[in-house]
Amino acid sequence: MAKNLHCWRCKTLIPMLDEREWALMSPALSKTIEDIQAYRRKTGASLSECPPQTSACHLYARLTGFVETNPNAIWHHRAADCGPFCRHCRRPLRTARASFCAGCGTPVERESAEDEAASASWSVEHGVDARVFGASHHQVLAAVSQAIGPLIAQTHDAGDPHTYLCADAHVSVVTLEGAQIGVSVYRSGRWARSADFGRFLAQTLACRVYCDGGDEAPTVSDGYKLLEIEGGQERWVMQVPKSEAQA
Ligand SMILES: [Zn+2]
Ligand SMILES: [Zn+2]
Known about the structure:
- By secondary structure, the protein is of the alpha+beta class.
- The protein contains 7 helices and 12 strands.
- It is globular.
Protein backbone atom coordinates (compact mmCIF):
# COMPACT_ATOMS: atom_id res chain seq x y z
CA MET A 1 0.00 0.00 0.00
CA ALA A 2 1.16 3.52 -0.81
CA LYS A 3 2.95 5.45 1.93
CA ASN A 4 2.03 9.06 2.61
CA LEU A 5 5.25 11.04 2.15
CA HIS A 6 6.15 14.66 1.54
CA CYS A 7 7.11 15.23 -2.12
CA TRP A 8 9.61 18.05 -2.48
CA ARG A 9 8.64 18.60 -6.10
CA CYS A 10 4.89 18.84 -5.38
CA LYS A 11 5.56 20.48 -1.98
CA THR A 12 2.88 18.47 -0.18
CA LEU A 13 2.04 15.02 1.18
CA ILE A 14 1.38 12.52 -1.61
CA PRO A 15 0.72 8.77 -1.57
CA MET A 16 3.97 7.29 -2.89
CA LEU A 17 3.78 3.83 -4.44
CA ASP A 18 5.39 0.79 -2.85
CA GLU A 19 7.37 -1.61 -5.05
CA ARG A 20 4.44 -3.94 -5.73
CA GLU A 21 2.38 -0.96 -6.89
CA TRP A 22 5.32 0.36 -8.89
CA ALA A 23 5.51 -2.97 -10.74
CA LEU A 24 1.96 -2.25 -11.97
CA MET A 25 2.54 1.46 -12.58
CA SER A 26 5.86 1.35 -14.41
CA PRO A 27 4.48 -0.36 -17.57
CA ALA A 28 1.48 2.02 -17.56
CA LEU A 29 3.81 5.05 -17.50
CA SER A 30 5.99 3.61 -20.28
CA LYS A 31 2.87 3.00 -22.37
CA THR A 32 1.85 6.65 -21.87
CA ILE A 33 5.09 7.72 -23.56
CA GLU A 34 4.69 5.16 -26.37
CA ASP A 35 1.09 6.27 -27.01
CA ILE A 36 2.13 9.93 -27.24
CA GLN A 37 4.99 9.06 -29.63
CA ALA A 38 2.66 6.95 -31.79
CA TYR A 39 0.08 9.76 -31.90
CA ARG A 40 2.69 12.33 -32.94
CA ARG A 41 4.11 10.02 -35.64
CA LYS A 42 0.62 9.46 -37.04
CA THR A 43 -0.66 13.05 -36.89
CA GLY A 44 2.44 15.23 -36.85
CA ALA A 45 1.01 16.92 -33.74
CA SER A 46 3.23 18.83 -31.31
CA LEU A 47 3.54 17.59 -27.74
CA SER A 48 1.05 20.18 -26.49
CA GLU A 49 -1.48 19.11 -29.16
CA CYS A 50 -1.58 15.47 -27.99
CA PRO A 51 -4.74 14.38 -26.15
CA PRO A 52 -4.12 13.80 -22.44
CA GLN A 53 -3.00 10.25 -21.62
CA THR A 54 -4.91 9.28 -18.51
CA SER A 55 -4.63 5.49 -18.11
CA ALA A 56 -1.65 5.83 -15.70
CA CYS A 57 -3.61 8.48 -13.76
CA HIS A 58 -6.59 6.15 -13.48
CA LEU A 59 -4.36 3.36 -12.21
CA TYR A 60 -2.76 5.72 -9.70
CA ALA A 61 -6.20 6.77 -8.41
CA ARG A 62 -7.26 3.13 -8.13
CA LEU A 63 -4.11 2.16 -6.23
CA THR A 64 -3.92 5.18 -3.93
CA GLY A 65 -7.30 6.96 -3.89
CA PHE A 66 -5.46 10.15 -4.96
CA VAL A 67 -6.62 11.95 -8.10
CA GLU A 68 -3.59 12.89 -10.21
CA THR A 69 -4.18 14.56 -13.58
CA ASN A 70 -0.57 14.77 -14.75
CA PRO A 71 1.01 11.37 -15.53
CA ASN A 72 4.49 12.97 -15.47
CA ALA A 73 4.15 13.65 -11.72
CA ILE A 74 3.65 9.92 -11.04
CA TRP A 75 7.22 9.16 -12.17
CA HIS A 76 8.56 10.61 -8.92
CA HIS A 77 5.88 9.21 -6.58
CA ARG A 78 7.79 6.03 -5.75
CA ALA A 79 8.56 5.48 -2.04
CA ALA A 80 11.76 3.53 -2.81
CA ASP A 81 13.30 6.61 -4.46
CA CYS A 82 13.04 8.69 -1.26
CA GLY A 83 15.96 9.06 1.13
CA PRO A 84 15.44 8.47 4.87
CA PHE A 85 13.49 11.01 6.93
CA CYS A 86 15.19 14.22 8.04
CA ARG A 87 15.48 13.95 11.82
CA HIS A 88 14.41 17.53 12.26
CA CYS A 89 11.48 18.24 9.89
CA ARG A 90 10.55 14.58 9.09
CA ARG A 91 10.39 15.17 5.36
CA PRO A 92 12.22 12.52 3.30
CA LEU A 93 15.71 13.50 2.14
CA ARG A 94 15.83 13.92 -1.63
CA THR A 95 18.24 11.01 -2.07
CA ALA A 96 19.62 8.19 0.09
CA ARG A 97 23.06 9.87 0.01
CA ALA A 98 21.99 13.47 0.72
CA SER A 99 24.34 15.20 3.16
CA PHE A 100 21.75 17.74 4.29
CA CYS A 101 17.97 18.19 4.23
CA ALA A 102 16.96 20.48 1.36
CA GLY A 103 13.71 21.22 3.19
CA CYS A 104 15.10 22.66 6.43
CA GLY A 105 18.89 22.69 5.94
CA THR A 106 19.68 20.24 8.77
CA PRO A 107 22.91 18.29 8.09
CA VAL A 108 22.57 14.51 7.96
CA GLU A 109 24.41 12.65 10.74
CA ARG A 110 25.75 9.35 9.50
CA GLU A 111 25.16 6.60 12.05
CA SER A 112 27.98 4.55 13.44
CA ALA A 113 27.81 0.80 12.70
CA GLU A 114 26.37 0.04 16.17
CA ASP A 115 23.46 2.36 15.46
CA GLU A 116 22.37 0.59 12.31
CA ALA A 117 19.07 -0.60 13.80
CA ALA A 118 18.23 2.92 14.97
CA SER A 119 19.19 4.26 11.56
CA ALA A 120 16.91 1.77 9.78
CA SER A 121 13.94 3.16 11.67
CA TRP A 122 14.40 6.45 9.77
CA SER A 123 13.86 4.70 6.43
CA VAL A 124 10.59 5.65 4.74
CA GLU A 125 10.00 1.95 4.08
CA HIS A 126 9.27 1.43 7.77
CA GLY A 127 6.01 2.41 9.34
CA VAL A 128 2.41 1.29 9.12
CA ASP A 129 -0.20 2.47 6.63
CA ALA A 130 -3.97 2.25 6.26
CA ARG A 131 -6.85 3.74 4.30
CA VAL A 132 -9.99 4.48 6.28
CA PHE A 133 -13.59 4.78 5.01
CA GLY A 134 -16.26 6.37 7.19
CA ALA A 135 -14.19 8.50 9.55
CA SER A 136 -12.95 12.08 9.33
CA HIS A 137 -9.36 13.35 9.27
CA HIS A 138 -9.95 14.53 12.85
CA GLN A 139 -11.38 11.23 14.07
CA VAL A 140 -8.45 9.28 12.59
CA LEU A 141 -6.01 11.68 14.19
CA ALA A 142 -7.75 11.48 17.58
CA ALA A 143 -7.62 7.67 17.55
CA VAL A 144 -3.90 7.62 16.67
CA SER A 145 -3.15 10.31 19.26
CA GLN A 146 -4.98 8.35 21.94
CA ALA A 147 -2.68 5.40 21.22
CA ILE A 148 0.72 7.09 20.79
CA GLY A 149 0.40 10.44 22.59
CA PRO A 150 -0.25 14.11 21.80
CA LEU A 151 0.48 15.12 18.20
CA ILE A 152 1.73 18.51 17.04
CA ALA A 153 0.95 19.63 13.48
CA GLN A 154 3.87 20.49 11.21
CA THR A 155 3.17 23.57 9.14
CA HIS A 156 5.03 22.77 5.90
CA ASP A 157 2.07 21.02 4.25
CA ALA A 158 -0.51 23.56 3.16
CA GLY A 159 -4.22 22.78 3.45
CA ASP A 160 -5.67 19.44 4.47
CA PRO A 161 -2.76 16.98 4.11
CA HIS A 162 -0.72 17.07 7.26
CA THR A 163 2.23 15.65 9.11
CA TYR A 164 2.06 15.50 12.90
CA LEU A 165 4.93 14.96 15.29
CA CYS A 166 4.83 13.08 18.58
CA ALA A 167 7.97 12.48 20.65
CA ASP A 168 9.81 9.99 18.38
CA ALA A 169 7.01 9.09 16.00
CA HIS A 170 5.37 11.04 13.20
CA VAL A 171 2.04 10.66 11.44
CA SER A 172 0.96 11.66 7.90
CA VAL A 173 -2.72 12.08 7.06
CA VAL A 174 -4.13 12.71 3.55
CA THR A 175 -7.78 13.10 2.55
CA LEU A 176 -8.39 11.02 -0.57
CA GLU A 177 -11.08 10.55 -3.20
CA GLY A 178 -14.47 9.38 -1.88
CA ALA A 179 -13.79 10.75 1.62
CA GLN A 180 -11.17 8.12 2.32
CA ILE A 181 -8.44 9.04 4.76
CA GLY A 182 -4.93 7.75 4.12
CA VAL A 183 -2.80 7.52 7.25
CA SER A 184 0.83 6.48 7.79
CA VAL A 185 2.57 6.22 11.16
CA TYR A 186 6.38 6.19 11.16
CA ARG A 187 8.87 5.31 13.91
CA SER A 188 6.24 4.25 16.45
CA GLY A 189 6.65 0.89 18.16
CA ARG A 190 2.90 0.81 18.90
CA TRP A 191 1.99 -1.33 15.86
CA ALA A 192 4.43 -3.87 14.48
CA ARG A 193 2.56 -4.39 11.22
CA SER A 194 0.04 -2.50 9.11
CA ALA A 195 -2.54 -5.24 9.78
CA ASP A 196 -2.32 -4.51 13.55
CA PHE A 197 -2.72 -0.80 12.83
CA GLY A 198 -5.70 -1.48 10.53
CA ARG A 199 -7.43 -3.65 13.15
CA PHE A 200 -6.90 -0.93 15.76
CA LEU A 201 -8.42 1.76 13.51
CA ALA A 202 -11.36 -0.40 12.40
CA GLN A 203 -12.24 -1.22 16.00
CA THR A 204 -11.63 2.21 17.54
CA LEU A 205 -13.44 4.13 14.81
CA ALA A 206 -16.06 1.47 13.97
CA CYS A 207 -15.31 1.95 10.27
CA ARG A 208 -13.93 0.10 7.25
CA VAL A 209 -10.17 -0.06 6.83
CA TYR A 210 -7.85 -1.30 4.06
CA CYS A 211 -4.24 -2.15 4.78
CA ASP A 212 -1.37 -4.40 3.78
CA GLY A 213 -1.64 -7.94 5.08
CA GLY A 214 2.13 -8.49 4.94
CA ASP A 215 3.30 -12.08 4.55
CA GLU A 216 -0.24 -13.40 4.97
CA ALA A 217 -1.41 -11.75 1.74
CA PRO A 218 -2.30 -14.18 -1.07
CA THR A 219 -0.33 -13.59 -4.26
CA VAL A 220 -2.19 -13.03 -7.50
CA SER A 221 -0.83 -12.63 -11.01
CA ASP A 222 -2.42 -9.28 -11.86
CA GLY A 223 -1.63 -7.29 -8.74
CA TYR A 224 -1.90 -7.93 -5.05
CA LYS A 225 -4.57 -8.11 -2.39
CA LEU A 226 -5.28 -5.82 0.51
CA LEU A 227 -6.78 -6.76 3.85
CA GLU A 228 -10.26 -5.30 4.33
CA ILE A 229 -11.34 -5.01 7.98
CA GLU A 230 -14.84 -4.03 9.09
CA GLY A 231 -17.03 -4.98 12.04
CA GLY A 232 -14.60 -7.63 13.24
CA GLN A 233 -14.66 -9.33 9.80
CA GLU A 234 -11.61 -9.59 7.57
CA ARG A 235 -11.27 -10.54 3.91
CA TRP A 236 -8.75 -10.26 1.08
CA VAL A 237 -9.70 -7.89 -1.71
CA MET A 238 -8.08 -6.48 -4.82
CA GLN A 239 -7.17 -2.77 -4.71
CA VAL A 240 -10.15 -0.68 -3.62
CA PRO A 241 -12.60 -0.61 -6.56
CA LYS A 242 -13.98 2.70 -7.75
CA SER A 243 -17.56 1.97 -6.69
CA GLU A 244 -16.34 1.50 -3.10
CA ALA A 245 -14.43 4.75 -3.21
CA GLN A 246 -17.63 6.53 -4.14
CA ALA A 247 -19.89 4.72 -1.67
ZN1 LIG B 1 5.49 14.97 -6.48
ZN1 LIG C 1 14.58 18.67 7.30
